[in-house]
Amino acid sequence: MGTALTDQNSIQEEIKSRLQSGNACCHSVQNLMSAILLSKNLIIKIYRTIILPFVLCECETWSLTLREERRLRVFENRMLRRIFGSKGDEVTGDGRKLYNEELNDLYCSPNIVQEIKSGRMRWAGHVACMGDKRDVYRFLVGKPEEKRPLGRPRHRWEDNIKVGLQELGMDWIKLAQDRDRWQALVNVITNLRVP
């Protein structure tokens, strides 16, 4: 699959290429997605096992902004509208597009942003337990020595972890040392229903 790196460490091109891969994958299994004989639950399983891994490959390292989260949710809602179809109006008999709230009610699995957040939390716990001798850990918690450019600082990966754990008021690296508590926290974050 590969990763698209830029000199500004922007994730926008990476997400754009992943969404294109997801659309291409959806187009390749279009006959399965539109099969009348398959149940909606089976089509959702096809979406989660074939299409979603193309989009979420290496997503644990992404530092998402609200704009990128919105792009990912738009992709997922478009896929879910394709799966669930339109809703018939009882009065006029015309079909209409399902609203996002209706899609959230029909799709009982965690949404794409929750999947990314839980993957990020799992990866953060794994890295925090590595110790300071490993390069991955040093890259994660290390501070750059060169001078920072002018302007607002870019959103970092660690900032996403801190925002996810902000209400706990604990240091996430110390919290990740207890694997059982960390796994329970990751499960809670995965099961949150955020619109």
Summary?
This protein folds into two domains: 98 residues, no CATH class; 65 residues, no CATH class. Strand 1 and strand 2 form a beta hairpin.
Q: Mind sketching the topology for me?
A:
Layout (H helix, E strand, L loop, with lengths): L11 H17 L1 H4 L6 H17 L9 H19 L2 E2 L6 E2 L3 H7 L5 H17 L6 H7 L15 H8 L7 H5 L2 H13 L4
Helix pairs in contact: 1-3, 1-4, 3-4, 6-10
Structural notes for this entry:
The chain is an all-alpha fold and 195 residues long. It folds into 2 domains: 12-109, no CATH class; 117-144 and 155-191, no CATH class. The chain has helices at residues 12-28, 30-33, 40-56, 66-84, 100-106, 112-128, 135-141, 157-164, 172-176, 179-191; strands at residues 87-88, 95-96. A two-stranded antiparallel ribbon has the order 1-2. Helix 1 runs antiparallel to helix 3 (40-56), helix 1 (12-28) runs parallel beside helix 4 and helix 6 runs antiparallel to helix 10. The longest helix is centred in the middle third of the chain and has 19 residues, at 66-84. The protein is elongated, with a radius of gyration of 19 Å. The two termini are 30 Å apart.
Oligomer: single chain
Q: What is the makeup of the main sheet?
A: 2 strands, antiparallel
Spatial order of strands in the largest sheet = 1-2
Q: Assess the beta-strand content as a share of residues.
A: under 5%
Our count of domains comes out at 2
- The total count of helices amounts to 10
Structural class: mainly alpha
| Helix and strand sequence | HHHHEEHHHHHH
User: Separation of termini?
Assistant: 30 Å
Unreliable spans are none
Number of strands: 2
Q: Which percent range fits the helix content?
A: 55-70%
Overall 3D shape: elongated
